[in-house]
């Protein structure tokens, strides 16, 4: 290294350190594992982990993997709903499961796959539920709560739905309102379990763009369970890839999205290329010419006289 390069390195180091200090790790998951079984004495039906990843303010982490790989279970461990059997999970240095329920609800907001309604609430009533962690005993919502609920609806573009009933909404409209309720909690950590499940492609892209913008503007840290490989690669900062309860890769999308690895995890022939943004993009890989030729040959042999109908 030249003297000039050494000087540049010394000068850059304090800036880098200052950046880390200004935006320290908010969520730390280190060698976390979990297992559950039908009874306490029975062998585990499913084992998760160990899993390690971290996230800072404004960062979005995607949890990917095939069905039954442990994605939702990992989200529950991060939320503190279940306690890790080993390792640690910390939000700003504290284990979520050790926080009082009220404090946890003020710090962590969860958007589940399904949000069952006991009563057909109006949208504004539903979103106001996000303010319950800040209420006092025997006290109803105040003006500040109402303003926060209005702001949350505006953030997701659902102001026009305020007076609608929840059971009258389309899948896309309902998903926006559910997200608004989570935002009304003013959380530090936003957890979403398959938020694009009932959305068409336009709605999926809109939701991801909105989540990206909200994370930047409000300094949220978000963890999202999804099956959308390409949307995750385009909008997320890091990926945790699970298979059969094991973490097979974690890191930046460009580091995790390797063809051989994705094919092994999803049991599907795939190709990985770069999009115009420089992010990885996954496409289905068709049969090779050799495979197609072999298939044509077999078809030809099965025809009377050995003739391939497709070539006639």
Strand arrangement, largest sheet?
Answer: 5-6-7-3-8-9
> Can you write the helix and strand succession as a string?
HEEEHEHEHHHEHEHEEHHEEH
What is the number of domains? 1
| SS strand fraction | 15-25%
The shape, in one word, is: globular
Give the total of beta strands: 11
CATH fold title: Rossmann fold
CATH superfamily: P-loop containing nucleotide triphosphate hydrolases
Mean pLDDT: 85
User: What is the quaternary state of this protein?
Assistant: single chain
Rg estimate, integer Å: 24 Å
Q: Give the low-confidence spans.
A: 1-13, 299-312
User: What CATH architecture label applies?
Assistant: 3-Layer(aba) Sandwich
Alpha-carbon distance between the termini? 68 Å
What is the CATH class?
A: Alpha Beta
Which structural class is indicated by helix and strand composition?
alpha/beta
Give the helix proportion (percent range).
Answer: 25-40%
Largest sheet: 6 strands, mixed
Helix count from the secondary structure assignment: 11
């Amino acid at each position: 290294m030249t003297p000039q390069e050494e000087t540049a390195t010394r000068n850059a180091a304090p800036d880098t350190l200052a950046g880390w200090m200004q935006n320290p790790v908010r969520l730390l998951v280190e060698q976390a594992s979990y297992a559950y079984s039908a009874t306490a004495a029975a062998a585990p039906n499913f084992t998760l982990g160990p899993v390690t990843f971290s996230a800072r303010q404004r960062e979005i982490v995607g949890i990917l993997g095939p069905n039954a790989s442990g994605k939702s279970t990992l989200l529950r461990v991060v939320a503190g709903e279940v306690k890790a059997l080993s390792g640690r999970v910390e939000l700003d240095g504290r284990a979520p499961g050790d926080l009082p329920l009220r404090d946890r609800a003020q710090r962590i907001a969860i958007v589940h796959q399904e949000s069952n309604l006991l009563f057909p609430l109006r949208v504004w009533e539903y979103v106001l539920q996000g303010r319950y962690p800040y209420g006092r005993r025997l006290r109803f919502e105040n003006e500040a709560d109402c303003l926060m609920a209005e702001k949350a609806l505006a953030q997701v573009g659902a102001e026009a739905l305020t007076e609608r009933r929840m059971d009258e909404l389309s899948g896309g409209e309902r998903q926006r309102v559910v997200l608004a309720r989570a935002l009304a909690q003013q959380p530090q950590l936003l957890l979403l379990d398959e938020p694009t499940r009932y959305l068409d492609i336009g709605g999926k892209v809109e939701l991801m763009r909105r989540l990206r913008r909200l994370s930047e503007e409000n300094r949220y840290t978000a963890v999202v369970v999804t099956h959308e490989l390409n949307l995750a690669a385009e909008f997320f900062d890091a990926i945790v890839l699970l298979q059969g309860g094991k973490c097979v890769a974690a890191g930046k999308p460009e580091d995790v999205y390797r063809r051989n690895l994705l094919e092994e995890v999803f049991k599907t022939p795939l190709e990985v290329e770069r999009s115009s943004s420089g992010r990885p993009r996954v496409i289905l890989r068709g049969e090779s010419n050799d495979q197609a030729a072999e298939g044509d040959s077999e078809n030809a042999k099965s025809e009377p006289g050995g003739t391939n109908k497709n070539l006639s």
